Amino acid sequence: MTKRRRAQGEGTIFQLPNGKWRAELDLGWIDGKRRRKTATRATHRECAQWLAEAKRAKQAGGLVSRTPTVAEWFDTYLTEVAAGRVRTSTLSNYRRDFERHIRPALGRHRLDALRPEHLSRFYASKLSAGLSAYSLRYLHAEIRRALAVAVTWGLIARNVASSVQPPSLPHKEVCPLTVEEARRLLIAAQGDRMEARWIIGLSLGLRQGEVLGLWWEDVDLETATLRVRRQLTRARLAGETLSFGPLKSAKSMRVLPLPAPLVAALCQHQQRQREERAALGDVWADPRLVFASTTGTPVDHRNDTRAFKALLVAANVRCEEAVTSDGSTRLVPKVRLHDLRHTAATLLLAQGVPARVLMELLGHSQIGVTMNIYSHVMPTQLVQAAGAMESALWGEGH
């Protein structure tokens, strides 16, 4: 039987004397020289996978004969890979981080010359310059993902980011409102144009983008249910825009029952919005939005946060006096908007709602996330569990 001759660009796989396998792809004649791309793997199967990926990358124009610099590779990665995988807002965050941090510090290195010590020094310098550990871990995840694709494309042999530990996160104490503070906040919100928005934050614990991304088709006032299906996101580069995008994870899509006071507040909110729309006519931008600006456009996250701070001052909830530049004093709230979510979760746990149910209500992807964040409430539940066991085994008043 005549052995078939390999076609040009088909590639080959062969075993080395040391037992490992090597894949080789012919890139053709470039600048008067025959160029090839190779990869060494432990098994034939791994080489076959690499070869298939390399062929696809070559056809897409992503495989080059010269190893690019870190800056060149990130430009390619963001344009040809990340753009098709992540949300628009996430991609804009990637580009912002690349231009601010990665390009100036690491961009000049050739991709295959990047070493773990380069990343370690990079993280240390950023930490000393004041960048938070959280931001550095986010940067590390971006770098690791980009280098993983470079490995798959055969540009480098290993992902050096996997050998580097980013700075550890400091323990962050959750500071929810007390029941009394939450009630004062609701009293201050009565009659407010966005009263229903604050009730949703306190009673359901939705994320800010989830609340601002609600459409009326997601709210069923007759059955008292609400569907979380999208979020409002804001790009952070030049030409900032608001857009509706997918949720943080698949678990974030959920249907939630509404307490009766929230149903009543949403009914009042809907009627108020109908009156506003009727007054403006065709000027009203988007009739789908549950929470909109006075012209019917999506509510910017920053305006939403400013309104929350003003509500805290009106309710005098955890506000401290601060001296302004002209020497006068003003109240400055010390509560974050995200603490509404923590407050809802803490109150539910204190009322005996199981952590597994809370996980579903909050849209956490794993029960471990719920347990880690709200471990401060668990001792109360443990005492309740001990009391329940005492009643079950020995009865009341034993």
Summarize the structure.
The chain has 398 residues and is of the alpha+beta class. Helix content is 47%, strand content 13%.
Summarize the structure in words.
- This protein is α+β, with helices and mostly antiparallel strands.
- It folds into four domains: 12-59; 70-163, Tyrosine recombinase, N-terminal domain (DNA polymerase, domain 1), CATH 1.10.150; 179-341, hpI Integrase, Chain A, CATH 1.10.443; 347-394, no CATH class.
- The protein has helices at 44-59, 70-81, 88-106, 116-128, 133-152, 179-189, 195-204, 208-212, 260-280, 301-315, 339-350, 355-362, 367-373, 378-394, and strands spanning 12-15, 21-30, 33-41, 219-220, 225-228, 231-234, 242-245, 254-257, 319-323, 329-333.
- β9 (319-323) and β10 (329-333) form a beta hairpin.
- The longest helix is centred in the C-terminal third of the chain and has 21 residues, at 260-280.
- It starts with 11 loop residues before the first strand and ends with a helix.
Sum up the structure in keywords.
10 strands, 398 residues, three-stranded antiparallel β-sheet, alpha+beta, DNA polymerase, domain 1
List the helices and strands and how they pair.
Layout (H helix, E strand, L loop, with lengths): L11 E4 L5 E10 L2 E9 L2 H16 L10 H12 L6 H19 L9 H13 L4 H20 L26 H11 L5 H10 L3 H5 L6 E2 L4 E4 L2 E4 L7 E4 L8 E4 L2 H21 L20 H15 L3 E5 L5 E5 L5 H12 L4 H8 L4 H7 L4 H17 L4
Helix pairs in contact: 2-3, 6-10, 7-9, 7-11, 12-13
